Amino acid sequence: MRRISKQEEGTRRDFRESRDLRESRDFRESRDLEDSKTAKVSSDLAESDDSKEGSKNFDDARMNLEDRRELRSQEGRRKTNAAEEIFKDQPYEPQMSKNASKNKDSSNNLDAPENKGRYGPLQDYLDDPTIEEIWINSPQRVFIARNGRSELTNVVLTSEQIQALMDRILLWSGRRIDLSQPFVDARLPDGSRLHIAIPEITSEHWAINIRKHLMRGKTISDLVDLEVMSEDVAQILVESVASRKNILVSGSTQAGKTTLLNALVSSIPVTERVITIEEVFELRPRLPDCIAMQTRGSNFEGIGEISIRRLIKEALRMRPSRIVIGEIREAESLDLLIALNSGIPGMATLHANSAREAIRKLQTLPLLAGENITQEFLTPTVARAIDLVVHVGMDETGKRRVQQVLVVNERTEAGHIDCEEALTWNGLTYLKGTANLVRRASSD
Predict the structure, then answer these.
(1) Candidate CATH numbers 3.60.15.10, 3.40.47.10, 1.10.10.10, 3.30.450.90; the one for domain 98-211
(2) Residue 294: CB partners within 8 Å, gap ≥ 6?
């Protein structure tokens, strides 16, 4: 047998590769040509008025597509209705895995008789009147807040149980959460506020907060009895509400802003019509003529969102005697200022470190509404719109208290609004300031 040299072997290998490449290219060109012809024939059959067979095939394909869509829609509605019936008629009793149940006592077992309830092991904390808030950092880290202090509980859950619990709550509230909308604010049947954040926004586990309103429904007199404020502070607030002043409640998270705002709204005369606007329903004023509205997120198509700004504009068309905003955070502060300057008194809450900081923040937030908003416009607008700022806070022991009452004057200078203190808490008692509340009331 003749021996093949390396040069000849390389030549043959190059020839084979060239032949394979040429055949592969010819095959692709032939296949693309056939696909093009097939597509053209199909298009001609669908569009031609002369080809009855083509039209019939096209109509059959379209009908089959519509039938499949309708079947999927019917199947989705059937599953949704079935899930609603299950949640409506049966208590929530998710099953624990065998491996997980070996390491848990009966107090954390959802099947245990003492945990029979709508929200499993969380139900006891929801029913406890001394617990203010519940939050879950991970299935093994469930915390509660009692008297302003946080505590780690001995509850241990699984990721499946947490998701099942939250799905049940969200089903009742009508809100949704998914990868396109990883945050949600919702409300429990008892009025508690729920906030959820899911991965990948969080690093690994669902982050859940359930905030209860233990003092909601309290009046100004009730807050005095609870030592949230003194008799002098209560008198100032009641007289300010009666004289239709615009009141801003400031403070940190969990300081009691919503509780105080609810008490102020409940002291409005019953002859007035009140419109409340919130992200999630929290206020429950004791008034006969009160309309409550809340925001709405966008749907799966990204439309249908109702913002606080939109609700403020709609509220002005509903013959309000007063407008109450649960909390202002962004550009809606501009719409509130415009509404207050239109002759309609109102109230709102705002996150701030002090009463004076609340005024400065209110001079800044409306800038988010657009580039045409200037500080020269905002400073006198805020000075004329806000009459009183009530700052609430929580001390190191967890005690909530009204810490300052600030009177806002209409005098401004170099972007600064003149304010005077009416009462200030020094840690032991309230100190009277230089503010003259009668002067502002008579000028109105």
Answers:
(1) 3.30.450.90
(2) 277, 278, 279, 280, 281, 311
Contact 198, 206 (CB under 8 A): yes
Residue 136: the pLDDT is: 94
CA dihedral over 73, 77, 82, 86, signed as positive or negative: positive
Please check whether residue 32 is in contact with residue 25, taking contact to mean a CB–CB distance below 8 angstroms: no
Q: Are 337 and 315 in contact (CB under 8 A)?
A: no
Q: How many residues in the chain? A: 444
**Residue percentage of the chain with pLDDT more than 90:** 44
Looking up tokens 């609340």 gives: 358
287-296: per-residue pLDDT in tens? 999 999 999 8
Using DSSP bridges, classify how beta strands 193-197 and 247-251 pair: parallel, antiparallel or unpaired.
unpaired
pLDDT at 69 > cutoff 60: no
Mean pLDDT of the chain: 80
Sign of the four-CA dihedral 49, 53, 54, 56: positive
Contact 349, 249 (CB under 8 A): yes
- Per-residue pLDDT band at 107 (split at 50, 70, 90): very low
Find the helix packing angle between 52-89 and 159-173, rounded to 10°. Answer: 100
pTM of this structure: 0.68
DSSP 178: B
